[in-house]
Amino acid sequence: MFMHNKKLQYTVRVSEANPVLASLMLEQFGGPQGELAAAMRYFTQALAEEDPGRKDMLLDIATEELSHLEIIGSIVAMLNRGVKGELAEASLSEADLYRSLTQGGDSHTQALLYGGGPALTNSSGAPWTAAYIDTIGDPACDLRSNIAAESRAKIIYERLINVTEDPGVKDTLSFLMTREIAHQKSFEKALYSIEQNFPPGKLAGKRQFADLYVNASQGNGDSDGPWNSGGEWKRLDDVVGQIPLDGGAGSATVKLTEEEARDLSTFMQRLESRVDEQATPAKRH
Amino acid sequence: MFMHNKKLQYTVRVSEANPVLASLMLEQFGGPQGELAAAMRYFTQALAEEDPGRKDMLLDIATEELSHLEIIGSIVAMLNRGVKGELAEASLSEADLYRSLTQGGDSHTQALLYGGGPALTNSSGAPWTAAYIDTIGDPACDLRSNIAAESRAKIIYERLINVTEDPGVKDTLSFLMTREIAHQKSFEKALYSIEQNFPPGKLAGKRQFADLYVNASQGNGDSDGPWNSGGEWKRLDDVVGQIPLDGGAGSATVKLTEEEARDLSTFMQRLESRVDEQATPAKRH
Amino acid sequence: MFMHNKKLQYTVRVSEANPVLASLMLEQFGGPQGELAAAMRYFTQALAEEDPGRKDMLLDIATEELSHLEIIGSIVAMLNRGVKGELAEASLSEADLYRSLTQGGDSHTQALLYGGGPALTNSSGAPWTAAYIDTIGDPACDLRSNIAAESRAKIIYERLINVTEDPGVKDTLSFLMTREIAHQKSFEKALYSIEQNFPPGKLAGKRQFADLYVNASQGNGDSDGPWNSGGEWKRLDDVVGQIPLDGGAGSATVKLTEEEARDLSTFMQRLESRVDEQATPAKRH
Amino acid sequence: MFMHNKKLQYTVRVSEANPVLASLMLEQFGGPQGELAAAMRYFTQALAEEDPGRKDMLLDIATEELSHLEIIGSIVAMLNRGVKGELAEASLSEADLYRSLTQGGDSHTQALLYGGGPALTNSSGAPWTAAYIDTIGDPACDLRSNIAAESRAKIIYERLINVTEDPGVKDTLSFLMTREIAHQKSFEKALYSIEQNFPPGKLAGKRQFADLYVNASQGNGDSDGPWNSGGEWKRLDDVVGQIPLDGGAGSATVKLTEEEARDLSTFMQRLESRVDEQATPAKRH
Amino acid sequence: MFMHNKKLQYTVRVSEANPVLASLMLEQFGGPQGELAAAMRYFTQALAEEDPGRKDMLLDIATEELSHLEIIGSIVAMLNRGVKGELAEASLSEADLYRSLTQGGDSHTQALLYGGGPALTNSSGAPWTAAYIDTIGDPACDLRSNIAAESRAKIIYERLINVTEDPGVKDTLSFLMTREIAHQKSFEKALYSIEQNFPPGKLAGKRQFADLYVNASQGNGDSDGPWNSGGEWKRLDDVVGQIPLDGGAGSATVKLTEEEARDLSTFMQRLESRVDEQATPAKRH
Amino acid sequence: MFMHNKKLQYTVRVSEANPVLASLMLEQFGGPQGELAAAMRYFTQALAEEDPGRKDMLLDIATEELSHLEIIGSIVAMLNRGVKGELAEASLSEADLYRSLTQGGDSHTQALLYGGGPALTNSSGAPWTAAYIDTIGDPACDLRSNIAAESRAKIIYERLINVTEDPGVKDTLSFLMTREIAHQKSFEKALYSIEQNFPPGKLAGKRQFADLYVNASQGNGDSDGPWNSGGEWKRLDDVVGQIPLDGGAGSATVKLTEEEARDLSTFMQRLESRVDEQATPAKRH
């Protein structure tokens, strides 16, 4: 069960209200790399996790990410606290309010639609969606997804720090960024605690294709690197000449029943294409 | 520039039409871990990549993933080839068609809406969305995202193989699964070819919080593991007692202008909450 | 800050694994009336709430809803616990696994894509979206939204109880349903503690239109009720005869600059419609 | 059946073209609290409503909301009427057009993608989605949802009025806002005409949990109010000490078949976590 | 302004309740080719249309499509009228209700989430989205979009007719299908009433590329037809040999300021890729 | 199978970095009328196409559209190449970076979230969705959809050209625009090569309703044109007087079983509406 204490995990001190900066901060509130996505990624994994150690870790970090959602949401709420009263009380002239709302970012939507409250959207106003969550229920994959997600969140915080002048906001963002580094380390430890982590799953795959590098993009710019060269790789350069790689026809076929084949043949004949020249509307111009 | 050859990279041999199995296969066509997501993830990275070696690798693999999209789409098309003619030509009785469409999965939508063609949805009919793509334009992060994505795609193929009896489909799925293993290896090689890959970005974070493990979920089930114990970690157990971690008040504050403060005060008074007992509609019941 | 204890708020006892029932339960996990929507609705309101009493209440209930998300997610995880192992270990024949996955509901996607973990989708596999959240930052509105949301959640639980035979699941769902009743009461109390709760906001509107009932749907079936009849209502029956209600022209106009008017005129002439008979492709058939 | 008359329900008089203001107005055209959402909410309820009186009311109001969609859409069309011709006829220099498109809001997308026509998006360009509609087919709930929706729409109109200088637009928006007040009253009358409206549905819930207030958020800021105190409430403060509330173990369990248990055990062993220290890539940095 | 009459445009006679068939019918209620998409496509075009004749036509057809939305929604409501009462009143045993809800299609979500009311989703439960609407505000394009949309809607109705045994439903669907044919004809007439309808817009394009057919897919299966052969076409077969088609370098370049170039160079060096062999985690397995 | 050559189909020469212009260009990268939508529309059609000629054409054009996606994506990458380094290296002051990010359009999201890489969103940041793709698997419909789609894409390019001063960008956009014209012609040729292209499908519809024009929008502004007048049309003006068009009751009915009828009756009684005056909360104000 969750419990809550009204103290934040880290103090939020904002120097002045600024709704445009607020709208940028939403990237880590309701954006794809933000704290709700993090919390829900780990929480859904925890619920289905069978290993007690990983379950505990996932619950620890999910709970902390919810606390970070609270921190970043509090930053947004503080930055919007000026415009909230002005809009609700109509204290400025219409022209001044209009100007204040359309000065940049998507702050207009934050004010008009959400009344200055932190909304679960990214900085462009796209609503948060569970499509952001890539949990698939295999620990060796999910931990890799978590490592990647933490690294991305770290960078988004770094970018937000780079555009923020407010020292209090900067300080709190630095704390949040640092915690992503710590979480990334935890997830790496947990991944490498699984003996059979590569390839994930049980099936080994077809030996002859596991070390093959297909040079599908050619021409000026072809390069060598450890990802396609060296003792671990066979490289296929004559791609068109070698396909299909199974030595078959390279076509797609299915065995149909007689009835299915007859119906399909009727369908094809009804819609077959004449190959002689056709007058068409567009031709006239 | 892209070119296309009508031969597939791997031959597709389907034993019999089966629209329900087709709808399951969509997971790798228009699903979150499917081939369009893979192709677009790498392609968008390639366009902005400054390093020539990584750019070449990303284009190679993006191009191959498009070719895999073609293979899995061809499997779907073959599996639906029976129902396509039957529905378009209305060759069965209505009752038989109705039965054939509602026998499981989401094959009904595939038939009614897409006419048996492969649709860019997952196996539940959710349309593909770019929200699946987690590219953020930092190579040390994007490569981690790619490693994770390949591992997930490998598992989805494994699950599809496990539910497929058709030997031809199984064989082609095994090829596709194996290629994900190869791609995962390439991306790992590329990640470890970047010297400064951890933490990603330039900012180091706050030292005192980088090795801290916050035991936010407590009670029966607390566990130790390399992700929270050992020489690299300090652990915080008395969480409520220690917050906020900066030693401040743990509150969120903003400095408002006089006008902002006045408006907000008006807003608060207008909407303040009486704390005495209120009769409410629900009470009557 | 959030804290977590590994005990659930209410014990979950599931009699047997059943992935189809699991997929139905998702309605309250990742569906529009489910627990994540509830938690996020109240949590986002709490962050921007200025009234200390309401803020406390919103945090109390948001935190409890997160704990309910954990309970319903645990039910899903238990119901899927059988298929999870079978699919990952491929212990059944392909035909048996295929049958078990396509027996109804959207359990196929839950298994293939999420590996049996609880996914943030509704029972049809539509991913959770913040578009479900109707917070607008005005307490007199948001509390009404909360009352309505709790009433809806109560009914979805009632429907799930009605289709569940498992006594343990039924018992836990009854607990969750009851809590929605309690929350609805709290939100009603809070709404009626705001003196100026109707109409919400500051503007009173145009007097002559506030008590007008427009009988826009006519013909057989027109009815009287307290919503359109009695001393509080004026009713408009001759709608077409009376529009526009402001006594003007009923048209839409804008004053354009000379340049704008000239451009628009060019645009209109370029695309104007000939009214004489036209031969068209479709005519030939 | 619907019929249409080319007169608007209320005259629209716009003083000058202004594409940025147009983009703000979209909030009530294709936004979550806008007129399409209103019309579709009531229309879908009307189609399934069994009570003749409520069905009539829902059709009356749905039809009027469609007429309001027409009014707000006409405001948008008028405000965009200048840029429409300029962009289509390329009458300005590229630099002037570019400046006029990027002066604020999301007017750039309105011009480039929709050619200045009113689009079914909110003011940030997020496409309208049926996820906005919370109809669940129970009148006692749906009427509460309608009351809440009308109150929200009222406030969004108030905010738009507060940022609009144009007297004609202001006047029309005031009309639309007032109608939301009238609709809210109708829906309240209809709700209280249902005797058994609380709790909605048939099931009464578990007595011991219906009057319980769970103080899940604690610490500085805990407050009393009619929503958690007084004769109608029992309050639970020692939350961690009392869970689970059923007196059980607070765990989640399921009875598995022998085969299921064996598969799960294999799965767990294959993926179990070693708890000794692991060297990991991130460690090297 | 819209008006409504409670008579339907066409009588709906359903022989027996059938929630699975209801869920298929949703394709034309809240699906991409359904009646809401049609109504909103034409209605948004009408609001911005400058030509009075086309505006009138678009309003006529939009209004009729709303009336068709009412008809198809009424079919859904009738087909669900049995399950609605059973679920709300819990009149069947839980097992019977469970069976009745999971017998096919997505009828489970229709019952649980929407209580049997017609929902604005497609037959797989994907919520309606304005992304279905392709209006761009150019009449010569929008009319083509309308022609295509009507042709698609006609086919979806045909498919629904083919799976429906109920003679009353079949009759009403035939009416709706026929109206799509009539609308398609109207839109064709309107398109060919615009003199300058091809190419749409004002700009003519680059002469040398307007009649060029690029044979980008080669190999076995290359075909000739009026779309790539004959007097109107030049064909490019040696694609790789001829690109770029402008005779330039085929690269992408931008002139950067000195500062921009310096920053980019720092960025590249920081993240450059070592090309020597790297030990990676995956290698160990 | 797809192959790639690192030369672009057309050279991209950008005069100076400009992230706001980049964000406008996204309309043709990840927008509804953009190149990914085009490529995927034709590619999905190709996979299911039975006619070899059309299949070849669809693959040719799909492949070329992918190459156009590469071109427009390269334009975006070049326009963002300045801000990418500045943000990653934090070379400007925070205030300068903030200003550069919030100067218009949605360039702030492009920088913060995507690091300046081309993202699969439209110019307002709405993620690309397969809901944009209207393929239904009937060639006579799909070709009409393709014709319409090409005409729309042509106009979006024209609008982008009109707002672009950069001569290199203008030149490349003109190439891309021209290719849409060529593709539109190919699809028209292919449509008119199908003998039975109108009405699409096999069913002819109800004769008496195929030539009927329903004048559903009346009043001032009613117009005549070839779409509603002349020898091919019967026109219905007295709409309310004539409905339902089948001469029936205009109602919706279903035959219920006795049990279903009884449950429904219980449901109706439980929720029936009292028609006498009700005191309601809103009344008090």
From TrEMBL, chains A, B, C, D, E, F:
Mn(2+) binds at E35, E65, H68, E150, H183. Belongs to the manganese catalase family. Keywords: Calcium, Manganese, Metal-binding. This is Mn-containing catalase. Ca(2+) binds at D56, D60, N215, S217, G219. InterPro entries: Ferritin-like, Ferritin-like_SF, Mn_catalase, Mn_catalase_dom. Transmembrane segments: none annotated. It comes from the Bacteria. Its cofactor is Mn(2+); Ca(2+). The keyword Signal does not apply. It holds the Pfam family Mn_catalase. GO terms for molecular function: metal ion binding. SUPFAM superfamilies: Ferritin-like. CDD domains: Mn_catalase. Binds 2 manganese ions per subunit. Binds 1 Ca(2+) ion per subunit.
